[in-house]
Amino acid sequence: MRGFLLLEDGTVFSGESVAAEGRAFGEAVFTTSMSGYQETVTDPSYVGQIVCFTAPMIGNYGVAEERSQSSRVHSTAVVMRETGGIAWTEWLRERGLVALRGIDTRSLVLHLRERGAMRAAALTGETPVDEVLAEVRAQPSMEGAALVAGVSPPDRYTFAAEGDVRVAVVDYGVKRSILRLLTEAGAAVDVFPHDVDADALARYDGVLLGNGPGDPAPLLEETRTVRELLGRTPVLGVCLGHQLLALATGHGTFKLPFGHRGANHPVVDHATRRVLVTSQNHGFAVAPDGGEGVTHTSLYDGTVEGLDFPDLRARSAQFHPEASPGPHDGAPIVAEWVEELRALA
Question: Is 260 among the residues known to form the active site?
Fold first, then answer.
């Protein structure tokens, strides 16, 4: 069946439908990862986004349940140049995701790099473009979108009961692999919803502020909770958690033109001058405003990739330390943090 991607500026990319039929709306973005396609679409940070994979073939090593980063898909649609096996497209179809192949992904990525991520629709069948274009332009922008309530759990739950340090994770849309990395480091892990209060978190040996979707700026209550928590127990922020720590300590955030998404983003550690190859997935960033506490910086655009406030016992990383399925340059960040908690316990 015919399918096409329609961008809000009226540009059309034609392809073939290979999964669910219908129409899906979202922000058109791209990821440069060569692998990890299942991890990508199940990452809650991709809520409300149509994901273009830049790798020329997607799906060639199949699917496996243990690779999923949450219990369901969060991308609204996927766009690919070619697919490499029926297991992947059937997996997408079973989950109701619109997926297109045969798209000129190189041209699409160049278009998004030049004009920025934009609202779009992925469609199957014969649909009048003018009719759908009006719907695309009526969709809300990602800027100003507070999305964490839609992916955060309604109640606290225990992910791992055994461990020699007790860690609370604030789930703004946290990936399962981050929780697994904590348990592998020896932590007992309780997971809390996004609207947890600081008093409940302060009773733990440490608090990890997880990743999640959307714009951090409208998350006023979540930022206030982080501010109230600082200095009471050690804090580690990851991705959206990094941005909330930044807001709580006086830094600013802004929307990137086309985001950082992929497994090949170079980040310099200012203390060691080592360059980490990192996995990233975010459309908003901490501004390089000369504020205090900056430890890591993106070599692509100078945005702030890490913060450290020793007096507050708080630090953060914009990139994903566990980086499922890779690379793993940043993985020691979580293990070292848990080891520090163990020394303080």
Answer: no
